[in-house]
Amino acid sequence: MALVTTTEMFRKAYEGGYAIGAFNVNNMEIIQGITEAAAEEKAPLILQVSAGARKYAKHGYLMKLIEAAVADTGLPIAVHLDHGDDFEICKSCIDGGFTSVMIDGSKHAFEDNIRLTKQVVDYAHSKGVVVEGELGKLAGVEDDVNVADEDAQFTDPAEVEEFVTQTGVDSLAIAIGTSHGAYKFKPGQTPRLRFDILEDIQKRLPNFPIVLHGASSVIPEFVATVNQYGGRMPDAIGIPEEMLRQAAKSAVCKINIDSDLRLAMTATLREYMALHPDHFDPRQYLTPARTAIKDMVKRKLVNVLGCSGKA
Ligand code: G3H
Ligand code: 13P
Ligand code: ZN
Fold it and tell me: By percentage, how much of the chain surpasses pLDDT 70?
């Protein structure tokens, strides 16, 4: 099995009422933890790489690790650029073997977003690569950019048909109340997703794959473990898994999860270091860290995505 695009995955996910997990990767242990979980669950998979991940690990290293995971598991895996900022980074990832890119023009005016997204689509499609666009602005932290709550904006359903037709994008990320990072809601706030906006968009774009970013649930026991072993994370609230499971049954075909994996890895490392102060072989502490990633991904495949057995 070679790397695949998301076209077939999304078609089956839409029809089957489930979603594909898109997990961010930064190093070998994260890639192995995610792909081992997906292999055991026989789940199709999207491994996504941010600009920050490319800077940290380098494009070539991540590509080779992902190719090794494909050979090792035999799974259909798409490799996707997460939050491409401009045409150049999208082109570089397309030329470097990615099967899918996101051009995130959500911070631009509508017309400029269309122009930029179309430029990427034209190039990507000429190379057999698919493109995710975005309309609406999520709150939260992404790379070095921090979108304040007051600057966040739900997607306007009245804009989606024009955006999709004019650009030719293959999937669309929308803002319905999810946000990036571990602090999605303030203490005391009740998490809420705008399913009414999602439904409206689904009616206007029949059979079209929708993407949800910022879909970590920030499970309290992991925050508690971080804090028990010397961490200082403030109270964090994410999107409840049942809400995301409901979204996965609709037109939502791709759900992005990063923070929950980071949190699981950090909690495990902190605990391990505290309980084994004499250990200094990286393999000793990275082994449980990798298992923590694997367990978290399995949890998401079962509780949120519903895509076990669909590979
Ligand atoms: O949405 C952003 C992802 O969580 C990736 O984060 O840009 O820090 O790698 P990053
Ligand atoms: P979380 O921060 O909620 O995990 O979102 C990740 C994401 O949207 C990556 O694009
Ligand atoms: Zn995102």
Answer: 95
Whether 94 shows a pLDDT value over 90: the answer reads yes
Phi, psi of 266 (to 5 degrees): -65, -45
21 contacts 45 by C-beta, under 8 angstroms: yes
Supply 116's token pair: 């930029």
CA–centroid distance, 82 to ligand 2, in Å, is 9
pLDDT tens profile 275-288 = 999 999 999 999 99
Sorted by sequence, the CB contacts under 8 Å of residue 39 that are 6+ apart come out as 72, 73, 74, 75
Sign, Cα dihedral of 119, 201, 219, 106: positive
Q: How far apart are CA 49 and CA 31, in angstroms?
A: 11
Which pLDDT score is estimated for 188? 87
Say yes or no: CB of residue 53 within 6 Å of ligand 1: yes
| Joined tokens for residue 255 | 């759900």
Q: Which ligand is nearest to the CA of 82?
A: 2
CA 52 to ligand 1 center in whole angstroms:
7
Rounded distance between C-alpha atoms, residue 64 and residue 134, angstroms: 28
Q: Which residues are registered as beta bridge partners of 255?
A: 21, 212
Q: Could you tell me the distance, in angstroms and rounded to a whole number, from the CA of residue 278 to the centre of ligand 1?
A: 33
Q: What is the pLDDT of residue 2?
A: 86
Q: Which residues are catalytic?
A: 82
Query: Do residues 251 and 14 lie in contact, with contact meaning Cβ atoms separated by under 8 Å?
Result: yes
> Using one digit for the tens of pLDDT, what is the confidence trace for 247-293?
999 999 999 999 999 999 999 999 999 999 999 999 999 999 999 99
User: Is 258 near ligand 1, meaning CB less than 6 Å away?
Assistant: yes
Report which ligand 1 atom has the smallest distance to the Cα of 51: 7
Contact 216, 185 (CB under 8 A): no
- Answer yes or no: are the C-beta atoms of 203 and 195 closer than 8 Å: no
Which of 46, 216, 266 is the pocket-test mutation for ligand 2 (most atoms within 8 Å of CB)?
216
Q: What is the CA radius of gyration of the chain?
A: 19
